[in-house]
Amino acid sequence: MVIFKRLLMVFLTLIIAVGTVLATAKHPTGPNTVSYDEPAGLWVSIGMVVVLFYLL
How far is it, in rounded angstroms, from Cα 45 to Cα 8? Predict the structure, then answer.
């Protein structure tokens, strides 16, 4: 049961992190930030978040 709670917490944190990247892309603050105008950069950012979560 403890392992389930830990995995659930990691999964929820991952979902929140990806959601934050998507919200940031929706409202970019400058020319060098993630935005929906450049989908490749957005996918790279989301991929980096996912890979870093699984490396931990």
Answer: 22
Question: CB neighbours of 45 closer than 8 A, spacing ≥ 6?
Answer: 21, 25, 34
> Are the beta carbons of 26 and 37 closer than 8 angstroms?
no
pTM of the entire predicted model: 0.85
Token digits of residue 48: 């980096």
- Residues 49 and 22 sit within 8 Å (Cβ to Cβ): no
Unique residue bearing structure tokens 């389930």: 4
11 neighbors 2 (Cβ within 8 angstroms)? no
Digit-coded pLDDT (tens) for 1-56 = 888 999 899 999 999 999 999 999 999 988 889 999 999 999 999 999 999 998 87
